[in-house]
Amino acid sequence: MGTRFNSVSLSGTTTIARNTLIRTGSTGYNNGYKGYGAIWLVSDSIPITTPINFSDIIIQDSFYQAIQFYQSSMSNLFFKNITVDTADFVLEEKVQATSTFSDTNAKNIKVAGILNCGIPCTVNNEGGNSGWITDIRCVQ
C-alpha cells in the first residue's frame, strides 16, 4: 500500500483488517534490499499522513520482514492485534515514520524484532506487545 508513481495522496482513514498472510513478501528487485514485507508501505512520491489502521492480522512465514516502511515519510500508522509467526524481522524501517503498536505478538523471529540502521523512526508501544519490540538491530 502506498503512494507511488506520482499518485494521488491518500485521504480519510484507511482500515485493513482481518487478514491472514501466509508465506508472503518477496525478494528484492534491483534495489539492494533483501526483500519486501508481507505488509509493505511505500511513500516514494507523496508522504503518507492520513491514518492507516491495521488490525486483527496474522502474518505467518513471511519471506524476510513482516512489516516494512519504505521511502519518503509516514505518520499515523496504527497496528493492533497483529500476530507474526516466523520472519527475519517483524518491522523494517527504511523511512522516517511514526507508528503505534498494541497487542502485536511475535515468535520465531530469526534475526531481530526491528531492523533500523539509523533512520529516525518512532515506534510507540501502547502495550500488549511481545517477542519483538525491544530488539532493534542494524544489519547491513
Describe this structure in words.
The protein is built from no helices and nine strands. The protein is an all-beta fold and 140 residues long. It has one domain. Strands 1, 2, 5, 6, 7, 8 and 9 form a seven-stranded parallel sheet that branches. The chain has a two-stranded antiparallel sheet with strand order 3-4. The two termini are 25 Å apart.
What order do the helices and strands come in, and which of them pair?
Elements: E1 2-3, E2 14-22, E3 26-27, E4 35-36, E5 39-43, E6 52-60, E7 65-115, E8 122-125, E9 136-137
Parallel strand pairs: 1-5, 2-6, 5-7, 6-7, 7-8, 7-9
Antiparallel strand pairs: 3-4
Distinctive features:
140 residues, mainly beta, seven-stranded parallel beta sheet
Produce a short descriptive summary.
The protein is mainly β and 140 residues long. It is built from no helices and 9 strands. The protein has one domain.
Helix count, DSSP H or I runs of 4 or more residues: 0
Determine the structural class based on helices, strands and strand pairing. mainly beta
Shape: globular
What is the rounded distance between the termini?
A: 25 Å
> What order do the helices and strands follow?
EEEEEEEEE
The poorly predicted ranges are none
Mean pLDDT: 88
Largest sheet: 7 strands, parallel
Strand content: over 45%
Number of strands: 9
Give the proportion of residues in helices: under 10%
